[in-house]
Structures are given as structure tokens and as C-alpha cells.
Amino acid sequence: MKEFFLKKWVRHSLVGLGMLIVWQIGAFALRYMARSNGEQILAPLSKNSSILKEGMKTLSTLEKSNLQRLLNLFDRIENQKEQHKAAFLEFYPYHFASSALLLILSSISVVLLFLTAQVGMNNTSPYVRTIFFTLAALTAFYALSPLVFKQETNISTNLRKFILYDNLEGELYNYAVTNPNVTSSNDTLPFNKFHSSITKTMAEINSINVEFDYKVIPVPDFGLTKP
Question: Is 26 inside any structural domain?
Fold first, then answer.
């Protein structure tokens, strides 16, 4: 067993594996921190939703049946809002971790590249070369993953729709507690027209936004592409 671990390729593999393990632990910690921060940012809006719903129940000037229809609509909006919140909290931690790790990797790689350039790659310690190549692979991965999984697009789209649904909840509350019942733009609408306008807006907003783009990965054609 000792002879096995004395083999050069085994030792270099263990160095690379150790770096990957440490890096994954760091990535997990960054994702956990980012998710916690994201939840804290969105928490006040979720709390406002509960306040608005309770306010509709206690302050509404609508008939009981119409109020119940709006409360049902409120629940539907809340469910769709939570779906976009979940998608945001899925992509945001990965984007945050990728950006932070890419910054760290790039900084370390520049230092190693400078040190290697002083003596030449062939004269550099084999372990330094292993570390350098492992860092280069990690840098490429964290540079490409946000583009492949379109993290920035998925984050901004889901966050925007989360806010749109949150605004719709405010519309429902405003209509329910005003007398005569008006929209947030101060327009007086019959109940059925208001209800239909909200459901129409929900249909326009409603979608599942998860996008990918594998084409951003550079793939050599090895001269096989016809001119």
C-alpha cells in the first residue's frame, strides 16, 4: 500500500483531489451564505403578504362572496410568487458562489503564473504545475457555469416576476379596502372587471423561467468543419 502512494501520479492525483474537496467545501459555504442573505432580503415582502391578506379579511368593504373570490385569487398569486422566489433562491447562491470563487481563482492563478514565468514551466516543481492546472480547470468551470446555466438571466427574470406578483397582491388589498372600490391607479372598476383584469395580468406574467445555453461552451472542431 505504501508503494502505491509513493507513485508520482497517485501523489499528484491526491493533490488535485484535495484541492477539489477544499474548493467544494468553500463553494458550499458561499452558497449557504448567499441563500441566507437572499431569504433575508425577500423576507419583508413575504411578511407584507400576510399583513395584506389579514387586512383584506378585517377591513374589506366588499360583499362576503366577492371578498372570498379575491382571497382565493390572492392565494393563487402567492403560490406563483413563491414559485419565482424558489427559482431565485436556487440560482442566486450558485451565481454568488461562482463569482466569488472565480475572483479568488483568478487572483491565485495570476500569482502562480507570475512565479512560474520566472523559472519556466519545465523548471517549476511538479506539484506547482499540478496546482496550476487544477486551478486553471476550476477557473474555466466557474467562468463558464454562469453562462451555461444563464444564472444572471434566471435570477433577474424570477426576481422581477416575484416583484410583479407582490404588486398584484397590493392591488387586491387596495381594491378590497377602499370605498368605492378603486384600483391603485385610482380607477373605479366594477368587481368583475377588476377580477378579470387581475387574472389576465397573472396569465401574462405566468411562466416557469429556467434557461440554459450549452452553446457558450467552446468546442474545438479539430478541422472537421467544412468551409
Answer: yes
